[in-house]
Amino acid sequence: MERGLLKRIFVQREQLLDRIVDRLSTSMSTGDKHHLLLVGPRGSGKTHLVSHADRELRQNPKLADSMRIAWLGEDDTFSGLIHLAFGIARLLADEYPEEFPQEFKAPVRGLPPEDAALAVLNNVIKNLKHRHLLLITENLDRTFHGLGEMGQKKLRASL
């Protein structure tokens, strides 16, 4: 949606947006990490709020070389760690093609899914170099459900 229209329909959440952007900016530029969880009923404006935060962070010149963003949207679903790893790698390759390879599946072809997932995530981390990854995930409960308990543990361990 066009930025001006997004701003016009954004009502009474400016302070919340400022706090979110400030915390994430600090997290992306220092070792002081923040994790944010936005909870609310469907249609309450969570995605709208996140889209504003995403734009402000991307437009901040101080963060241009210290941060990369992968936004897993509302329609992205994962039935295992391999699908999540591929989703993150695909988003980064599309958004930052000079830093992340488009062909990230070929090197892991033939590996067991969990090993392939960890290899893809390790490659993402390697390609980040000195940068931080901001991972935006909608419907985190569905993502965790799809990963299962072991997938969640392996994701935490790799990140």
Characterise this structure.
By secondary structure, the chain is mainly alpha-helical. α2 packs across α3. It is built from six helices and two strands. It folds into two domains: 1-64, no CATH class; 65-159, no CATH class. The protein is 53% helix and 8% strand.
Defining key terms:
159 residues; mainly alpha; 2 domains; two-stranded parallel sheet; globular
Quaternary structure annotation: single chain
Termini gap: 32 Å
Number of domains: 2
Measured as a percent range, the helix fraction is 40-55%
Uncertain stretches: none
Order of helices and strands: HHHEHHEH
pLDDT average, as an integer?
Answer: 88
> What's the gyration radius in Å?
16 Å
Strand order, main sheet: write it out: 1-2
* Shape, principal axes of CA atoms: globular
Please summarize the sheet with the most strands: 2 strands, parallel
Question: Could you give the count of β-strands?
Answer: 2
Tally of helical runs: 6
Question: Structural class per helix/strand content?
Answer: mainly alpha
| Share of β-strand residues | 5-15%
